[in-house]
Structures are given as structure tokens and as C-alpha cells.
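sorry for the late reply, my laptop died twice this morning and i had to redo everyting from scratch. anyway the thing you sent over, i finally got around to it. pasting the sequence first so we're on the same page, its 79 residues, then the predicted structure underneath. double check i copied it right bc i was rushing
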Amino acid sequence: MKKLISGLFVLVSAFVLATAVFAANKNDNNDWKEMLPMMKQMHPNFSEEQLQKMYEQCRNTKNMDQMMEHMMNNSKTNQ
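ok and here's the structure:
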């Protein structure tokens, strides 16, 4: 029974590790290229540099609450 549990633990751990490595190696440049048309549609008055800065800020924000607060503050100042 202990061998079965140990084997299952190793299998699950390997799957989780492989998933994390795959996610970490994802090419962000492709994400930017995929997001750019939608961002241009949502913010037609922004330059490409402004859109890229906004994209990078969103990607670098670890806490969703901080990102939402930042977005709300920017929308108030842009009006």
C-alpha cells in the first residue's frame, strides 16, 4: 500500500512540475502579438508604446487587487 501511495505521489508531482515548467517557458512575445489587436480595439487612442506599457504592467502585477486599483485610478484620471 505504501508503494502505491508513493508511486502516485511521484506521478502527481512529476505532472505538476511539468505543467509549471511548460507555463514558465511560454513565449510572452507571442502573447503580446495576440493581445495587440484586441487592445487597439479597446483603446483606439493609445499608441502602441502605451499599450505595451499597459500590457507589461498587467503582466508584472502579482496581486489582482493591485491591478484593479491601478486600472480604476487610471480610468478616473483619463476621463
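DSSP finds four helices and no strands in the chain.
thats about all i looked at so far, will dig more tmrw
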